[in-house]
Structures are given as structure tokens and as C-alpha cells.
Design brief:
flat, alpha+beta, 9 helices
Length: about 325
């Protein structure tokens, strides 16, 4: 069995193992292994893996817990995995549609894994295979279609684009290269004439677009497309490094954003360092987290956050009463 297939099978088994054990407190390991179709050794290895699985935070009270009495096991904390994974009709059929499209995409890797997953879902859905399914394309499908049309026709575009990192809107003339789907969002890869470089433009942040009569004329160096295997944002050493002291309620940022360093700090606080494309974006992130985060560095960000927070508090201050003359 290949490594990828073995990992997928083990993940499915682990997702069902907790609710199985919850329904059978004190079950003997040998009986559980027989029901699950695995060896005693494999079951024990699965249980050892469950010890380090659980909710974000991954500390006491977050991880799946269990009690052993000889060769018997009882789940004492399930971390919310209290029932076997079940897909609704729409969810199952949406997966079938997506996997079929993926299997037919030229040049795709791991086609065997895709076909095995597709076969399992189709077997599980049974008579639902021919049932109607509602499929939604992320974002504005009309806008994405217009962008794809510009790529096919080889036309330049003039766009009005909102840059979230700088919280600003700008006008740009671009030469479209291709439309991509990354993380459930549509992006236009294009040569930006203003930046004189290849840029990714999120489709739902293009406020207006006009197809020009002139052809798209991206220079030869634009042929080097983005490598998106690590995601859209790829931090580099030349970007600002921000260090934050993060409380328990803000630890989610370590899973959502690529971090260079995550270290335990005082009490429940973590020391987190990450690269950002713009300090203004970092300022909004910190202000949004409120008391869950404190800026350690750089000093510029410390001062900006302090000034913005002070201004916000001043706006809520109650003015002193004005004396009324008699």
C-alpha cells in the first residue's frame, strides 16, 4: 500500500474510532481491533496517535483523552468527535463533481488516489449518483467568466483593485495570463504594468474591469508563473518581521498564517514571529485581536498600534460637563 493511501485510510479510521469507542466504554482492545478490521498492534498505534489529537491550543483539556483498565479502553474526552463522519447528499455529490473534474484535468498528479476516493464516495452514495446537486462557484461567477474571456481573447484590462494589505484602491492596466483557483478563491495572474511584475489579483477584490482594444503584451519574463504549492502568500526575508505575544484566544493565527517562530511564553502566552507584506495590514490584525495580542516588535508597529488604540479610547471618552452660568 502506498504512503498516501495508507495515510488516507488511517485518517478515515481515526475519525470513526472515537465515536466507536464512545459507544462502547470499557471495550476490550482485541474485540475493537476485530470490529475495525485491524491488528491489535495497529489499534494500539492509532490510540497512541489520538493522545496528541484534539482542539487548537493542544494543551491539557484540548486533546482527546482516554482511560485504560488492563486491555480495556474508555474515551474520557472526545474533543467534539462524538459521531462518525457523515456527508449530506449535497456534500457527497459536490465531492463527486469536484473529483470528476479533477480526474479529467490534464497533468494532474496522484490520479490513482483521486479515482480511489471517487469510487469510495460513489459506492457510499449509491442511488444518489444521479440525483441533482447544487454547485456554487466561489466568488462572482460572472466576473470570473469575464476574466477568463479576457485571457482567451488575449486582451489587456484596466481594473480598479482593492488591496487589503494597504487598505487602498488603485487603477491598474494589466495583461492577463491565466485564472487560478487557490484555497476556494479565484485569482487572476497578470502582468501589472504599474509594478512591472507578475501579480495575483483576487477576483472578488476587482471592483471594476474594462477590456481594452489593445492585445495583452506581457513581457517574456512573465512566462514564469507563480508557484502556488505553498499558498498565495509566500513570505521572504526582505519582508518586515513582526513579533507578537499572543494569548490563548489568538493562537489561531499560527495555523492561519505562515509563521517563522512559535515559542511558549509566560503562562498561556506564545511568542509568535511572522513576515507580513505591509505593516498596515499587521496593525489591523493586531487591533482586531484586542487584548489577546501584544506587539513586541518592530517599534514602528508598537507605536502605530498604541496611537490607534489611544485614539479609539479618546473617541469614547465622556466630555467634561460645561459649566452653565447663572
Amino acid at each position: 500500500m502506498s504512503g498516501s493511501r495508507a495515510s488516507a485510510d488511517r485518517l478515515a479510521r481515526l475519525l470513526n474510532l472515537v465515536p466507536y469507542l464512545l459507544a462502547r466504554p470499557g471495550i476490550e482492545l482485541a474485540e475493537a481491533a476485530g470490529d475495525l478490521g485491524v491488528s491489535d498492534r495497529q489499534l494500539r498505534e492509532d490510540l497512541e496517535l489520538l493522545w496528541v489529537c484534539g482542539l487548537p491550543g493542544y494543551g491539557p483539556g484540548d486533546l482527546i483523552d482516554m482511560a485504560f483498565d488492563g486491555d480495556r479502553v474508555t474515551i474520557t474526552y472526545d474533543a467534539g468527535i462524538d459521531r462518525p463522519l457523515r456527508l449530506t447528499q449535497d456534500e457527497a455529490l459536490a465531492l463527486v463533481v469536484a473529483l470528476r473534474m479533477l480526474a479529467e484535468t490534464p497533468g494532474i498528479d496522484n490520479r490513482d488516489a483521486i479515482e480511489r476516493a471517487l469510487a469510495k464516495i460513489e459506492d457510499a452514495t449509491g442511488d444518489l449518483a444521479d440525483a441533482p446537486v447544487e454547485v456554487r462557484i466561489p466568488g462572482d461567477s460572472d466576473q470570473v467568466e469575464a476574466l477568463q474571456g479576457a485571457v482567451r481573447r488575449g486582451k489587456a484590462l484596466r481594473i480598479t483593485y482593492y488591496t487589503a494589505a494597504r487598505d487602498e484602491t488603485s487603477e491598474r492596466t494589466i495583461d492577463p495570463i491565466r485564472v487560478l483557483m487557490v484555497g476556494g478563491r479565484a485569482y487572476l495572474e497578470a502582468w501589472c504594468r504599474r509594478a512591472e511584475a507578475v501579480r495575483l489579483f483576487r477576483a472578488d477584490r476587482i471592483d471594476a474591469q474594462t477590456e481594452l482594444d489593445e492585445p495583452a503584451m506581457a513581457p517574456p519574463q512573465a512566462a514564469r508563473s507563480y508557484d502556488l504549492t505553498a499558498g498565495v502568500f509566500q513570505p521572504s526575508p526582505d519582508l518586515p518581521l513582526v513579533t507578537l505575544r499572543v494569548g490563548r484566544g489568538g493562537r489561531w493565527i499560527t495555523e492561519y498564517y505562515p509563521c517563522e517562530r512559535v515559542e511558549p511564553g509566560d503562562g498561556e502566552q506564545w511568542l509568535v514571529s511572522l513576515r507580513v507584506s505591509d505593516l498596515r495590514w499587521a496593525r489591523r490584525l493586531v487591533l482586531g485581536l484586542g487584548p489577546e495580542v501584544t506587539v513586541v516588535s518592530p517599534l514602528e508597529l508598537v507605536e502605530e498600534v498604541r496611537d490607534r488604540a489611544t485614539a479609539a479610547l479618546d473617541a469614547y471618552a465622556v466630555p467634561a460637563p460645561v459649566p452653565v452660568g447663572h
